[in-house]
Design goal:
The protein is built from seven helices and four strands; from the N terminus they run βαβββαααααα. The chain has about 210 residues and is α+β, with helices and mostly antiparallel strands. It binds glutathione.
Length: about 210
């Protein structure tokens, strides 16, 4: 059976939601962040040397990196959650999957960390204007893509939504000013209304 090593308030939500959508049996093993450092407990290092989450065990193999998990789980268990591999949409699908953890994640995290620092009185000079420029560039791109769309690719739920949904939802919930992206806001509301997402949220919270 698939095992998901799940850290609260983390990218592991992508995989918890995907497993709920797939509907195959899986075991959920929960870990809680340290309140002070916000890091994962050391016990996660026994599963994978980085000690980060998500991690899954699939057919005896340990997999880290949420993007790899999304791709392999969909390929093996839920091919309907990806476009046909010979289509142009498949390239868009892969692009958004990788965009989520690279182009979108960096400005999101920088903005979160900058927000913590400025709240505690640090005067950020270069970093603040760099972050604002990058964040607005990337999130405007996402917002423009989502105008008139409910999903990233083929106007249906695909692996790309599990990957990017986590980033844009984190930004809207945690960052000042991120609400200036109305199409992203509507997109998130739509994702949050999906029953598999709601089941995953209930499991994360219990
Ligand atoms: N690129 C990895 C990132 C994994 C990652 O950084 N996970 C964070 C949670 S979102 C984590 O485990 N942080 C706790 C720690 O590093 O101790 C992925 O997409 O799975």
């Amino acid at each position: 059976m698939i095992k998901l090593h799940h850290l609260n308030a983390s990218r592991s939500m992508r995989i918890l939601w995907l497993l709920e959508e797939i509907g195959e049996p899986y075991e959920l093993i929960k870990y809680t962040r340290d309140e002070q450092t916000h890091l994962a407990p050391a016990s996660l290092k026994a599963i994978h040397p980085l000690g980060k989450s998500p991690v899954i065990e699939l057919d005896g193999q340990v997999i880290a990196e949420s993007g790899a998990m999304v791709e392999v789980l969909i390929k093996r268990l839920a091919p309907h959650l990806a476009p046909d591999e010979s289509s142009a949409a498949y390239i868009d699908y892969l692009t958004w999957i990788h965009f989520a953890e690279s182009s979108a994640m960096l400005p999101f995290l920088l903005k979160i960390f900058n927000q913590y620092e400025t709240q505690s009185g640090t005067d950020l000079k270069f970093l603040n204007s760099y972050t604002e420029t990058e964040f607005n560039k990337v999130f405007t791109h996402i917002n423009n893509h989502l105008a008139g769309r409910n999903f990233l690719v083929e106007e249906r739920l695909t692996g790309a939504d599990f990957m990017l949904g986590f980033v844009v939802q984190g930004a809207l919930n945690n960052l000042k000013g991120a609400q200036a992206f109305p199409h992203i806001e509507r997109y998130i509301q739509n994702l949050e209304s999906i029953s598999s997402y709601q089941r995953a949220l209930a499991k994360e919270q219990n």
